[in-house]
Fold:
Amino acid sequence: VVKVARVPFPVASGDEVVDRVLDRVSSRTRLLLVDHVTSQTALVMPVASLVREAQGAGVDVLVDGAHAPGMVPLALDALGAAYYTGNCHKWLCAPKGAAFLHVREDRRDQVRPLVISHGANALEGARSRFHLEHDWTGTRDPSAWLAVPAALSTMERMLPGGWPELQRRNRELALAARRALCASLGVDPPCPEDMIGSMAAVPLPDARLAGPVDAFSRSPLQAALYREHRIEVPVIPWPGAPRRLLRISAQLYNSLEQAQYLTRALAAELAAEG
Structure:
């Protein structure tokens, strides 16, 4: 039985998230699945606290880190989660199809791939059974994975301070853009700054036009921002229409001037909505 922890947004602190999640954990809980960075609301979750508390209660944790690699500092051994998976095509700028699964060593003999291939009957040597079975399944093309080291090296050379400076720069830009948008909209920041990485979500006035039926469809406001201003930014029905969020992202190719341009364009389009 899947038990869902309802995390509020706006949210006051990471402690509130921990409390909401742990309230759903019982003696029957076997696995806790938690985002490292939420997709729609762009919250950096307090995963270290959640892993520590859950695993202290005997509950394994699977962290969905799709947005985390390249956005926030990540030390998998120090985090200690039983399972962690992350994408490399987002903030690391590797090709699509590049991702990884990290399984803590004491759990590796329990995890097998869905597709059984050459490694299933290979003899163990320098490589573990876990790697033999997972590293090359079926006719999978490994090109995207092989490009990850080059992506890491290329991004690291973009700024003198390497990855720490890159992450700091992107986060500061995301925060500055959020402050500008919140001031223009007359709303309070929906979460504390320590829960922000390189993305931020800002509540918008309720939609007056018919919007999308799900979070993956283009809303009329999103379409207008692209059509009239050539701005590509998601407008997300959250937690459901007519309520909505605007989610911004900051990468090296973005600037504060672009964030200010978005702020003016958004104000114009919201005024046009009436």
